[in-house]
TrEMBL record:
<feature type="transmembrane region" description="Helical">
    <location>
        <begin position="380"/>
        <end position="403"/>
    </location>
</feature>
<feature type="transmembrane region" description="Helical">
    <location>
        <begin position="294"/>
        <end position="314"/>
    </location>
</feature>
<dbReference type="GO" id="GO:0005886">
    <property type="term" value="C:plasma membrane"/>
</dbReference>
<feature type="domain" description="Major facilitator superfamily (MFS) profile">
    <location>
        <begin position="30"/>
        <end position="409"/>
    </location>
</feature>
<feature type="transmembrane region" description="Helical">
    <location>
        <begin position="97"/>
        <end position="119"/>
    </location>
</feature>
<protein>
    <submittedName>
        <fullName>DHA1 family inner membrane transport protein</fullName>
    </submittedName>
</protein>
<dbReference type="InterPro" id="IPR020846">
    <property type="entry name" value="MFS_dom"/>
</dbReference>
<feature type="transmembrane region" description="Helical">
    <location>
        <begin position="261"/>
        <end position="282"/>
    </location>
</feature>
<keyword id="KW-1133">Transmembrane helix</keyword>
<dbReference type="Pfam" id="PF07690">
    <property type="entry name" value="MFS_1"/>
</dbReference>
<feature type="transmembrane region" description="Helical">
    <location>
        <begin position="29"/>
        <end position="52"/>
    </location>
</feature>
<feature type="transmembrane region" description="Helical">
    <location>
        <begin position="125"/>
        <end position="142"/>
    </location>
</feature>
<keyword id="KW-0812">Transmembrane</keyword>
<feature type="transmembrane region" description="Helical">
    <location>
        <begin position="154"/>
        <end position="180"/>
    </location>
</feature>
<feature type="transmembrane region" description="Helical">
    <location>
        <begin position="64"/>
        <end position="85"/>
    </location>
</feature>
<feature type="transmembrane region" description="Helical">
    <location>
        <begin position="320"/>
        <end position="341"/>
    </location>
</feature>
<keyword id="KW-0472">Membrane</keyword>
Length: 416
């Protein structure tokens, strides 16, 4: 018996498990339909960043207080994703997606009609609950339909809907807010959500007759996975680092870089285009080298944010760095979602839901800290400083995942 040959075969088997096979050439249409839903929800979450001055003025609150509309949305998704995933566990996934879109539409009508800041906060929280439910279930549906060979790629496409929101939805919302009032974008989102219900109902397949009904206890067993918690920690820090800066990007661009307020939406387009490209490329790379992709994305994001802190007084470098922040800052997200779903084992719905919670925990914590920094002596640069620190922390869990996988590979090799 050739021992060396046996070791090589075992190593190859482990690598085949750790590195997904190359993706297929074409993904099913339903993946792109789900991406349309995330486009609407990404627009809803991020459009407030481009409307903060207008909303603050009409609601008679400070810009930092208006930023709570971002924070409360993130908090709602933190709570809503796992809670709604558990409450709808026995519902058909297609029905869950349709109901989530319906509640999403209602939440936006309330915001469009509301005049009380407290009412708007409550409506944003309600909308976030629906968004968390939709996103968690959409990730599971996409991963299962695409199969393990292309799960990161499929999740990259689904998530790219939110990134496309930054290219199209958020800038359009910002322009509309400047010319037609900030309520207009919320009316538009409500109408589009209702229209999307039909597409989801038509294209998302029924749960198969062999679909296993998983108990809540079985789902909660996934919480014993240490690798899952490392992936969730990375989800929180990578998003927190980017969005703590992005949530208050308008003051940085206008007060620090000297860019006219009317040009801010164009800079947001640059961020969105970078994020869209990063999501798609990150998803493809994640099917081949997931661990290297997450580490490099974290290191690159930290470097870009540090450069923003140092060069934000110059308009052109700042605009370029904002686009690069989108490219590197969110590129690892589909990989992290795919890893979390895999590490959750027999509880993919909870694993997916927890990634949504983790991303938004990072957003809530980051935007809260950034708001405090904005009001400190750091001024408009403060959110970027906070973002740099948070992004650097991503290197800890991503490196931990890679080392854990290496130990598992060596352990499996030793057995053979």
């Amino acid at each position: 018996m050739n021992t060396r040959g046996g070791v090589l075969h075992a190593t190859d088997a482990v690598r085949a498990d750790d590195r997904e096979r190359p993706p297929t050439t074409r993904l099913p249409l339903v993946i792109h339909v789900l991406a349309l839903g995330t486009f609407l929800m990404g627009t809803s979450e991020f459009v407030v960043a481009g409307l903060l001055p207008e909303m603050a003025g009409e609601l008679r609150v400070t810009v930092a207080q208006a930023g709570l509309l971002i924070t409360v949305f993130a908090v709602g998704m933190i709570v809503g994703a796992p809670l709604m995933a558990m409450l709808t566990l026995r519902l058909p996934r297609r029905l869950t997606l349709v109901l989530a879109l319906g509640v999403f539409a209602v939440g936006h009508v309330i915001v469009a009609l509301g005049t009380s800041f407290a009412l708007l906060l409550a409506a944003r929280f309600l909308t976030a609950l629906a968004t968390g439910a939709f996103w968690a279930v959409a990730n599971v549906v996409a991963a299962r339909i695409a199969g393990p060979a292309a799960s990161s790629r499929a999740l990259g496409v689904v998530g790219s809907g939110a990134m496309l929101a930054n290219v199209v939805g958020v800038p359009l919302g910002a322009f509309a807010g400047q010319f037609a009032g900030w309520r207009g974008p919320f009316w538009a989102l409500a109408v589009l959500a209702v229209a999307s219900v039909g597409l989801i109902a038509r294209h998302v397949p029924h749960d198969g007759p062999g679909q296993q009904v998983v108990s809540i206890r079985s789902e909660l067993s996934a919480l014993r996975s240490g690798r899952l918690w490392l992936a969730l920690a990375a989800c929180a820090t990578t998003t927190g680092g980017v969005l703590s800066t992005y949530s208050y990007i308008s003051p940085l661009l206008t007060d620090r870089a000297g860019i006219a307020a009317g040009l801010v939406p164009l800079v947001l387009v640059g961020f969105g285009a970078g994020a869209l490209a990063g999501f798609l490329v990150g998803g493809r790379l994640g099917d081949v080298r997931p661990y290297a992709t997450t580490i490099m994305a974290a290191a690159s994001t930290t470097a870009v944010l540090l450069a923003v802190c140092l060069l934000s007084g110059f308009a052109v470098p700042t605009v370029v760095l904002v686009a690069l922040l989108g490219l590197f800052g969110l590129g690892a997200n589909p990989v992290l979602i795919s890893l979390a779903v895999r590490f959750a084992g027999k509880a993919p719905t909870l694993g997916s839901a927890l990634t949504v919670s983790a991303f938004n925990f990072g957003t809530a914590a980051g935007s809260w800290g950034a708001g405090l920094a904005l009001g400190s002596t750091l001024g408009a640069t403060g959110p970027a400083v906070v973002g740099t620190v948070i992004a650097a922390l991503t290197l800890i869990p991503t490196t931990g995942i890679a080392l854990t996988q290496r130990r598992r590979r060596r352990s499996t090799t030793a057995v053979f």
